[in-house]
Design brief:
Distance between the termini: 25 Å
Strand order of the largest sheet: 1-2-4-3-5-6-7-8
Low-confidence stretches: none
Oligomer: single chain
Number of helices: 6
Shape: globular
Helix content: 25-40%
Structural class: alpha/beta
Order of helices and strands: EEEHEHHEHEHEEH
Radius of gyration: 16 Å
Strand content: 15-25%
């Protein structure tokens, strides 16, 4: 259920105004900032599910709308502009005085990985990390993921055309963990004929993330 205390905040950044929708925990111990992808906004099913579930686990969730979405544009800008927008909202995410987990889906996951170390993120949550463009495995973005420099959790659909779980590179222990959402596509949608349900797919995400954030201390 959505908290009655949910509220929005507009934050100025070098890329223009961004918008945060806060889903506060009653007794928070972490803040999780979640950015959206290049093809959608904070209405994505995984972002909404996490915002609904995690506050009960002591995690205040802030869904972050990048300036280009707030301005009503349909195409995402260059990565450096996305990074600038994310850096601009960071003081608001850190304002509660709690450790901040930097997260996002797809392009938002890349932003979180690229900026985590410089911003002092406690960890990174990468939802549907776009390991490569569909059909172009040679165009790997693994360096962004491996270079996050903080504990990282990847949540990936089993049928994600941007990179399935089996495509992710081996890395030293502690670099990142990966949760597979069986049958899920890039948006974690599962086919009706799959051996699981859409509801269960979202539970895999929320239960896995809740357990992981609990391990962060």
């Amino acid at each position: 259920m959505t908290s009655e205390n949910t509220h929005t905040e507009t934050v100025g950044t070098d890329a223009g105004p961004a918008r945060l929708t806060w889903h506060p925990a009653k007794e928070p111990r972490l803040v999780l900032g979640l950015g959206h992808g290049a093809g959608g906004g904070i209405e994505a099913r995984d972002l909404r599910a996490l915002a609904a579930v995690l506050p009960a686990h002591g995690v205040t969730v802030a869904l972050v709308e990048q300036p280009w979405r707030v301005a009503g544009r349909k195409l995402a800008p260059a990565p450096k502009t996305l990074d600038a927008g994310w850096r601009g909202v960071w003081p608001a995410l850190a304002a509660p005085g709690l450790p901040v987990v930097s997260g996002g889906r797809s392009a938002g996951a890349r932003v979180a990985c690229r900026t985590a170390a410089a911003l002092g993120a406690r960890a990174v949550l990468a939802l549907s990390f776009p390991l490569h463009p569909p059909g172009r495995p040679e165009k790997s973005r693994a360096e962004e993921l491996l270079g996050a420099g903080v504990p990282t959790l990847v949540v990936q659909g089993g049928n994600d055309p941007f990179g399935g779980p089996e495509e992710f590179p081996e890395a030293p222990e502690g670099t990142y963990d990966l949760i597979e959402v069986a049958y899920g596509d890039h948006g974690f949608a599962v086919p009706k004929r799959a051996e699981t349900t859409q509801e269960r797919a979202l539970e895999v995400i929320t239960e896995g993330v809740a357990e992981w954030v609990g391990s962060l201390g």
